[in-house]
Design a protein that fits this description.
Layout (H helix, E strand, L loop, with lengths): L11 E4 L7 H5 L5 E6 L3 H4 L2 H11 L3 E5 L8 H13 L4 E6 L1 H13 L6 H7 L11 E5 L11 E6 L4 E6 L8 E4 L9 H19 L7 H22 L4 H14 L13 H13 L3 H16 L4 H12 L7 H19 L15 H6 L13 H10 L2
Parallel strand pairs: 1-8, 2-3, 2-4, 4-5, 5-8
Antiparallel strand pairs: 6-7
Helix pairs in contact: 4-5, 7-8, 7-9, 7-11, 8-9, 8-12, 10-11, 11-13, 11-15, 12-13
The protein binds 5,6-dihydroxy-NADP (NZQ) and zinc ion.
The site of zinc ion (ZN) has 6 residues, from helix 7.
Length: about 375
């Protein structure tokens, strides 16, 4: 492993059936006013809202509610939430939901006391936080993003047609996260599948980069094998606890910074997917699935050795001694798995029209950590191939 690194993950995790029982003790460490953040109402249907509000009442907290966080939370909603948090002088933001609710809560935590326009400061100028940060805790209801144990907060600006992620430092990571796999049972199957591919994509973005023998890549291979098995089992039976618990913890480990230690990373599939999201508001994991095969086929000639290793170590393809054939076989196996579990394999199905492609290409940030730095023309080509 050639890279130097600093590793620290300050998020405390409570994992497993009934993990919510730890919330009461945990809440004692925070002040009186809790801002309860949630999405479009799924937590009111599956009973999680009742459970959490009972615990908050038992702890004697004053609760300020901020519901209605949409999938792919917007800069307008962020401005609303920041105002609520500031005006109520909240002591803790409790995010109860999926990645959107967790991301939004972190964005609110750094924006409530920001004297600038938060979108411009954090998402255009990419500046660090230099104001008071409100602590965030999460009760996760959907596995995929890893937001429960990282500093990421992705916000969509519809006025500017941009979807941008800011990766904040340790001081913005959730202080604690409650992960009960049974909480994900009520998730629509489409969302479960999208979450599975989001996890796969996070691992691949970190795996397909660099040439040195690196412990992070071996961890990544183990996580991918677990995800492939568990996603197959969960698609057959969404209430398979073993599968859902593996998926949930894999999601967290895939993007809690562990698998990026000591190496470079790519993240171009996410840049493409986020630009698609800015134009369509489509489900995050599906935007990634729709562009992945075209992207990986394009970069494969520049990273053949790693793609061949991917075939061998992740998909158990028997080594035929020809690197190109191995590399292609690995991708073919991945494509088969993607179709088998029912992912969206093209952009048209997500509402992308031919006349959007140039705009999506303009909204795609080009990064240089992967095996090939794309030109703008190649971005357009990947998007066209993905239609
Ligand atoms: O809003 P509600 O009613 O809660 O419904 C949600 C939403 O419609 C529903 N859902 C969640 N848990 C449920 C449930 N429905 C029934 N039962 C449950 N237990 O699922 C839908 C999708 O939820 P959402 O939170 O939007 O999904 P996800 O967790 O995939 O989060 C997506 C957001 O995270 C960002 C994405 O860009 C996107 O904005 N990401 C954040 C990252 C990070 N922080 O590091 C990295 C990722 O790459 C990603 O970009
Ligand atoms: Zn993602």
């Amino acid at each position: 492993m050639h890279g130097n690194f600093e590793f620290c993950n300050p998020t405390k995790i409570f994992f497993g059936k009934g993990a919510i029982e730890n919330l009461e003790a945990e809440l004692k460490g925070y002040g009186k006013t809790v801002m309860l953040v949630y999405g479009g109402g799924s937590i009111k249907k599956n009973g999680i809202y009742d459970k959490v509000t009972q615990i908050l009442a038992k702890c004697g907290k004053t609760v300020v509610e901020d519901g209605g966080v949409m999938p792919n939370p917007t800069s307008d909603k962020l401005a609303e939430g920041a105002k609520i948090a500031r005006e109520n002088d909240v002591d803790l933001i409790l995010a109860v939901g999926g990645g959107s609710v967790c991301d939004y809560s972190k964005a609110v935590s750094v924006s409530a006391y920001c004297n600038d326009d938060p979108w411009e400061k954090y998402y255009e100028r990419m500046e660090d936080v230099d104001n008071k940060i409100i602590p965030v805790g999460c009760v996760l209801t959907m596995a995929g993003t890893g937001s429960e144990m990282n500093g990421g907060a992705v916000i969509t600006n519809h006025h500017k047609k941009l979807k941008v992620g800011h990766v904040f430092g340790y001081n913005v990571f959730p202080k604690f996260s409650v992960l009960d796999p049974e909480y994900t049972f009520s998730l629509p199957v489409y969302q479960m599948k999208a979450g599975c591919y989001d996890i796969m994509s996070h691992i691949l973005e970190q795996y397909f980069s660099g040439e040195d023998d690196n412990v992070s890549d071996y961890i990544a291979e183990g996580l991918m094998k677990c995800l492939i098995n568990s996603s197959r089992a969960a698609v057959k039976n969404p209430c398979d606890y073993e599968a859902r618990s593996n998926i949930m913890w894999t999601a967290t480990l895939a993007l809690n910074t562990l698998t990026a230690m000591g190496k470079t990373t790519d993240w171009m599939v996410h840049m493409l997917g986020q630009a698609v999201g800015a134009y369509t508001d489509a489900t995050h994991g599906m935007t990634l699935a729709a562009v992945s095969m075209a992207y990986y086929k394009m970069i494969l000639p520049s990273g053949k050795a790693k793609f061949a290793r991917f075939a061998r170590n992740v998909w158990n393809v028997v080594d035929c001694g020809d690197e190109t054939k191995m590399a292609l076989a690995g991708l073919a196996e991945m494509e088969k798995w993607m179709k088998e579990i029912g992912l969206v394999m093209n952009l048209s199905e997500l509402g992308v029209k031919e006349n959007m492609i140039e705009g999506i290409a303009d909204a795609t940030f080009i990064l240089d950590g992967g095996y090939k730095v794309l030109t703008r023309e190649e971005v357009v080509e990947v998007l066209r191939q993905s239609m």
